[in-house]
Amino acid sequence: MQPNSDAIQRLARISAHLDPPNLQMESGSGLEQVKCRARGGSSGFKVAILGAAGGIGQPLALLMKMNPLVSLLHLYDVVNTPGVTADISHMDTGAVVRGFLGQKQLEDALTGMDLVIIPAGVPRKPGMTRDDLFNINAGIVKTLSEGIAKCCPKAIVNLISNPVNSTVPIAAEILKKAGCYDPRRLLGVTMLDVVRANTFMAEVLGLDPREVDVPVVGGHAGVTILPLLSQVKPPCSLTTEEVNYLTSRIQNGGTEVVEAKAGAGSATLSMAYAAVKFADLCLRGLRGDASIVQCAFVPSQVTELPFFASKVRLGRNGVEEIYPLGPLNEYERVGLEKAKKELASSIEKGVTFARK
Ligand SMILES: NC(=O)c1ccc[n+]([C@@H]2O[C@H](COP(=O)([O-])OP(=O)(O)OC[C@H]3O[C@@H](n4cnc5c(N)ncnc54)[C@H](O)[C@@H]3O)[C@@H](O)[C@H]2O)c1
Ligand SMILES: O=C(O)C[C@H](O)C(=O)O
Fold this sequence. Notes:
By secondary structure, this protein is α/β, with parallel strands linked by helices. It is built from 11 helices and 11 strands. Strand 7 and strand 8 form a beta hairpin. Helix 2 crosses helix 10, helix 6 crosses helix 11 and helix 7 runs antiparallel to helix 8. The relative contact order is 0.12. (2S)-2-hydroxybutanedioic acid binds next to helix 9.
């Protein structure tokens, strides 16, 4: 059948008037230059995801697009953002989505943002520690932190890239160097440890995980991940065997996934879930909601270390209050000493790198 020329002309006229997808207007980026009525950001928060095309970044972008508190979602990566942005922009939720590709567009991606979530960087393979990622990820976090310092120094930063115990100190040093460091606004994301702890604890107790709350303090690697099982809500008593099993499973949750994925990366889906849960708490804090409390790895005076994960209260300025660890049992006191020893050298490594 011959194409009907009237129909073709009609289609051409219609498509010329259609609102295009919400892609960033940048030449040479692979992103199409388009005219777009939607502006985004009229109400609600502006959120950027750096590393948005990755294993965590993509489901994280999907879930943030579904968050009603987000009005503008910027997706930045050094690869593949045009496709991810086009795909996610078709979701009929409120947030306007824009894509940014490559270092040249980092500043546009960051300008005006209220919250920046960073899952950029390489993940582990079996046999590696998180610290083995330092050499690559430290430089990535440094560059991205410099961009934040320049373009959105007042944004809340949720840092996911590993090793979190070192990348958070790196970001802090870079922001200090730029003269815009506000310790309340820099948070290392340890939410996945809490999510895992709640899940594994619920399995042992035969409860719904949504009813369980286990504080996890310290840091985000091996023995620095310190679940305070004695403070679980609802209160319960555990056998020594259960405490050993749960502590080890929570500390090795990341490795469990890395081994199961057998070379194809580390936790991405559960991490995206945890990151969105945490980002949502940060946004609710920014909105002024009361009593938003969760664990995070933050600049801290709870111990003698300059950074430590513990429960924090989130508010209009980020971290408004950091809670003390509360009563620890002997098992947890021993764990705390081990955690602090390893944390001290990971923090020092990050600080030294950033000061070079
Ligand atoms: N904090 C946590 O609990 C937690 C949990 C899981 C994974 N992680 C960490 O998150 C990071 C990402 O994991 P993943 O599985 O998504 O990895 P991935 O390789 O699938 O994705 C990483 C993305 O980062 C991008 N990227 C690389 N350099 C960049 C740069 N300079 N600027 C912007 N983007 C850049 C890559 O292009 C890629 O799309 C890893 O370091 C991993 O160890 C942390
Ligand atoms: O284990 C990893 O390397 C990724 C992440 O830190 C996790 O805890 O799953």
